[in-house]
Design a protein that fits this description.
This protein has helices at 21-35, 52-62, 81-90, 111-119, 136-154, 170-173, 186-192, 217-233, 240-268, 277-310, and strands spanning 8-14, 39-45, 69-74, 96-99, 124-128, 166-169, 197-201. It is α/β, with parallel strands linked by helices. Strand 2, helix 2 (52-62) and strand 3 (69-74) form a beta-alpha-beta unit. The relative contact order is 0.11.
């Protein structure tokens, strides 16, 4: 191992968890010390309104262990869990990044199970709260519906997309940028860049201090984010004309059929075209067809400008093997 090389980065998003932070820190350091790996713990205060950041600051100042690195980051306001995680990712340096909630419902002792899977060759290991200690109707049922929907649409059969306890290899996260409420879809994005994904059952504990920050409104956010993720993971983002153009051609075909139907009725039944509703449907479908095709062309221009501005292609290289010329 290189000198001063950090093996593990633990990212902990925090929002109004003053009653849980100190116990969580004790459990985390105990579990990480047992792992025998070098580590850093990065707490990201997502605009807490209680004393969370003061407690975190105290933990950082009181840490006297020269072999560990404890860091507390405070965001200017409450941006949401995805932004808090990205702040942690951007300020971490470990080869393996582990995320965990601050509410003590995730068990730090399960970190070793995630690392075991990583050592088996997996790039992403997701926790599965097999026996959840949450309210059945407001938490468990919506979660099951969301997980089944995501697995069906994305095509990655995970039992628990919402579990925050996950482990990632650094090279996977370096190719992922998250926005909105996309943190639960990291395995989907990781799969898109060719990651090998595993899931392990983890312990789930009831919440003792504080209150849950999740509500039923998140189901709507999940559905909207799912549409975005499907767009990117399916590969359509690299050729948007295939999506918009296909819809445009379908509408164009329907418009043509409606126009032919109106013409047929004019010739064989004497129905005046200007009084036939088919001609209105035809005009509507053809105009929508043109709009979708033009949207696809504009999206093509935007996508190509995006990739060219980055100086990169829309592919990622895993390995290169060259002949030894020495």
């Amino acid at each position: 191992m290189e000198k001063n090389k950090i093996e593990l980065s633990i990212i902990v998003p925090v929002f109004d968890e003053e009653g849980n932070i100190e116990k969580l820190h004790d459990e985390l350091t105990s579990a990480l010390n047992e792992s025998g790996k070098s580590y850093e713990i990065i707490y990201v205060d997502d605009g807490s309104e209680d004393n969370s950041f003061s407690i975190l600051s105290g933990i950082v100042q009181e840490d006297k262990n020269s072999t560990t690195n404890i860091k507390a980051i405070r965001l200017r306001r409450n941006y949401g869990q995805t932004a808090a995680l990205m702040a942690g990712f951007d300020n971490s340096t470990g080869d393996i990044v582990i995320t965990i909630d601050a509410d003590l419902q995730n068990d730090p002792k399960d970190i070793k199970n995630l690392l075991t899977k990583i050592e088996e060759g997996y790039d992403v290991v997701s926790g599965w709260r097999k026996f959840r200690k949450d309210k059945f109707l407001t938490r468990i049922v919506p979660s099951k519906i969301a997980n089944n929907l995501i697995s069906f649409v994305i095509g990655i059969p995970l039992n628990d997309y919402g579990c925050s306890l996950k482990a990632y290899k650094r090279e996977i996260l370096d190719n992922i940028r998250l926005y909105g409420e996309m943190h639960r879809f990291i395995p989907a994005y990781a799969s898109w860049v060719g990651a090998k994904i595993a899931e392990v059952a983890v312990n789930h504990r009831p919440r003792i201090h504080g209150k849950s920050k999740y509500g039923l409104i998140r189901i709507i956010k999940v559905i909207l984010d799912l549409l975005t993720v499907k767009f990117f993971v399916s590969g359509i983002q690299s050729k948007p004309i295939y999506l918009f153009g296909a819809i445009g051609l379908l509408l164009g075909g329907l418009g043509t059929l409606f126009a032919l139907g109106a013409l047929y009725e004019k010739i064989y039944t004497g129905t005046f075209i200007h009084t036939n509703p088919l001609i209105i449907l035809s005009g509507f479908a053809l105009s929508m067809s043109l709009q979708f095709i033009l949207t696809g062309l504009l999206a093509e221009i935007i996508i190509r400008t995006y990739f060219e501005s980055r100086g990169k292609g829309y592919y990622l290289i895993k390995d290169i093997v060259e002949k030894d010329k020495s």
